Amino acid sequence: MQRLTSSLKYVSKFYKLDQLRPLIIQICSASTDLNFHKSVPPKDAGETKEMNLVQSLSHTMDIAMERDPSMIVFGEDVAFGGVFRCTLGLRDKYGKDRVFNTPLSEQGIIAFGIGVAAGGSTAMAEIQFADYIFPGFDQIVNEASKFRYRSGGQFDCGKLVVRAPYGAVGHGAHYHSQSPEAYFAHTAGLKVVIPRGPLQAKGLLLSSFADDNPVFFFEPKRLYRAATDMIPIGDWRIPLGEAEVVRQGRDVTLVAWGRQLHTMLDAADMARDQLDVECEVIDLQTILPWDTETIFKSVRSTGRLIISHEAPLTGGFAGEIASTVQEACFLSLEAPIQRVCGWDTPFPHIQEPVYMPDRLRCFEAIKKVIADS
Amino acid sequence: MSVLTRFLPAANTLLRLCTMSFTRRPTPFLRKRFHTSSLVTQAKASIQEHPHYSGYTGDETVSFTTPRYDLYRFEEGPSTDVVISRAEFLQIYDDMLTIRTMEERCAMLYMDRKIRGFCHLYSGQEAGCVGLESSIRRDDSVITAYRAHGWSYTRGISVKGIIAELCGRATGCTKGKGGSMHMYAKNFYGGNGIVGAQIPIGAGIAFAHMYNKEDRICVTLYGDGAANQGQLFEAMNMASLWNLPCLFVCENNKYGMGTSVERASANLDFYTRGDTIPGIRVDGLDVLAVREATKWIAEYMRAGNGPVLMELNTYRYRGHSMTDPGTTYRSKEEIQKVREIDCVRMVKESIINSNLATESELKQIDKKVKKVIQEAVEFSLASPEPNLNEVYTHVYSTLPYTVRGREPGEEYVVS
Ligand SMILES: Cc1ncc(C[n+]2csc(CCOP(=O)(O)OP(=O)(O)O)c2C)c(N)n1
Ligand SMILES: [Mg+2]
């Protein structure tokens, strides 16, 4: 098994970094390329239509608004579709009373949404980038999440859904690239959902609107227009709180969400082709509350677990999964659980490829868990 | 007077276009010509401190009339009669033209994909940073948002440092780590990407100046869009409560991204929104008005009178950032109307009409500026990208030898 790791080796100690820089950047860039793995809707899902992520989201909001006359959509520039055009057409169809721009005020947007939802309407707030959600952090952590609890069930803001694009895009630098899901996953009372493509976006967002708890829905913006799925056009949902086994395999369990799931699938392909290792790939889909059972079941059969996310390692959600799994599946584990994550640094600008937990790093982790066992 | 009639129609249309009274007046016109020795020495001193002083000379001064200022909680305001020397005016022209040319060149670099990511250009607003900078001191502090290229230049960063930063090169003013939104220099606290976040920080900087008994003010800039962030009101209350030497400046360019001011703000008189803080609205296209107002305010503040809110009425020509064509939420005519006034051209014509310099002298400046920009572009594109270790440097004050089990410099390479 030691042989497996020999194709990758440390070199920096022996070379000057400067000489290697172009090579490293080149390799990292190539291995952070998006390679989208399409999803197929279930056969019984009825009529389908091809859509990209943006179209799937606006289609889903359209269905929800049509069905629920109390629903309003608001956020910065959403009346024109928002910067990513996800709400395009809604203003024309439902009018300016239901689809409107807000001033530049994230705390205001979220808190206003809490009030609207508490007052009995469905509130869909768009935050332009997940990186901009933090001015509203207090309202999320202290108000939205605890409204039901602290009022002994008399009030809640379960009709609030906050959508925000997250994640790396190649050149977003410090404030247009972050993955903040772990901050919210630390707060009981919230739900945190991340789709991996247009199909899941539809199913999960419809469920989010129907859910009686405040839902934070983070969209992998790198995928917005990058790829399409066939989308069932009817009322088709994916339940919250359930992970999906995207690919079955007997050797290693790989867990990810959002865009990173595609990277894991790439690594799984490499492992199959180069190592004859079969990976079971699981899309967590709902980060909070998360589906422990599906992961436990998989780890009990493979004995190995790798979790990967773009967010930095320390305090990332992978840590929570790893800890829970080792408590529940300790005797099934054949190798230490691996986390392949962003480095513990701010999200870099020009050096994004170096930061990313790309397919080579995921592949390396697969080799390691195989070699260690 | 011919200048006057030439600009009046444009100014009137603009007035109608913008809901708030845009106190745009025609090109400042020549009033009288005189020499005042004290004024001259003052101008000389300040120009030699100028970080990009191009060696302009000429003690000869002229006087212009600026548009009137709108005041809030001020009984009297800055003078509308302003005096400027030839040397100073030429330097102002040089600065504004440099910024304009640099920004337009950046747009090209962006389209060539040499600049990636976000790039917010200052074109159209140059009178703001150049006018303000000409009336504050080098050791005063400035903090602004992401539309920071012009401010980076006036605060002393070279065009090379700015363009190299934009291109993500190691020779950039922040080592290529930040890009468009994140430029910093001595007494220039950036360059901030989160809208509104810089405002309370500015109040804090002002507090430090006061606490340390330094005779320094902090210029805290924000946009009309940012004016609606809650932090602004929190910061203003603190500044007023504690009498901080903080000059809040709202650069009102009529749009926050694609949202026009009247769709985002209930009170369009931004200069009145500091509640207990006295405010002043200035024609932000007129560099002399900005310069004069700032001079007056800075003096007022240095006397220990506490914070002031200045609104600059200005306009951005380009889209919000390079990914926005800037034409979907406003008409081409609207942009054209302001382009006809144009703050840079206004300076040029004022200089020529007042016989401070000849057209051919200004052409020399144009040529010099072009050369500076061209050299900076070549320098930037020839510069290396940042070292890989820059990914983890400056995260903490000291560099830990290992971070979560990884060693600095450690990288994987496929053999
Ligand atoms: C907290 C936060 N929310 C949203 C954004 C996205 N955004 C960047 S600039 C901008 C508009 C700001 O307008 P204004 O303050 O008028 O400045 P201008 O762009 O006109 O200079 C918006 C909404 C952001 N960067 N940070
Ligand atoms: Mg603005």
From TrEMBL, chain A:
Its main location: mitochondrion. Its EC number is 1.2.4.4. Pfam families: Transket_pyr, Transketolase_C. It catalyses: N(6)-[(R)-lipoyl]-L-lysyl-[protein] + 3-methyl-2-oxobutanoate + H(+) = N(6)-[(R)-S(8)-2-methylpropanoyldihydrolipoyl]-L-lysyl-[protein] + CO2. Residues 51-226 form the Transketolase-like pyrimidine-binding domain. It is found in: Mitochondrion matrix. Heterotetramer of 2 alpha/BCKDHA and 2 beta chains/BCKDHB that forms the branched-chain alpha-keto acid decarboxylase (E1) component of the BCKD complex. The branched-chain alpha-ketoacid dehydrogenase is a large complex composed of three major building blocks E1, E2 and E3. It is organized around E2, a 24-meric cubic core composed of DBT, to which are associated 6 to 12 copies of E1, and approximately 6 copies of the dehydrogenase E3, a DLD dimer. This is 2-oxoisovalerate dehydrogenase subunit beta, mitochondrial. It comes from Oopsacas minuta.
From TrEMBL, chain B:
One of its GO terms (biological process) is pyruvate decarboxylation to acetyl-CoA. SUPFAM superfamilies: Thiamin diphosphate-binding fold (THDP-binding). Residues 95-387 form the Dehydrogenase E1 component domain. Its cofactor is thiamine diphosphate. Its EC number is 1.2.4.1. It is an enzyme of class 1 (oxidoreductase). It comes from the Eukaryota. Gene3D superfamilies: 3.40.50.970. One of its GO terms (molecular function) is pyruvate dehydrogenase (acetyl-transferring) activity. Keywords: Oxidoreductase, Pyruvate, Thiamine pyrophosphate, Transit peptide. It catalyses: N(6)-[(R)-lipoyl]-L-lysyl-[protein] + pyruvate + H(+) = N(6)-[(R)-S(8)-acetyldihydrolipoyl]-L-lysyl-[protein] + CO2. InterPro entries: DH_E1, PDH_E1_Alpha_Subunit, Pyrv_DH_E1_asu_subgrp-y, THDP-binding. The pyruvate dehydrogenase complex catalyzes the overall conversion of pyruvate to acetyl-CoA and CO(2). This is Pyruvate dehydrogenase E1 component subunit alpha. It comes from Oopsacas minuta.
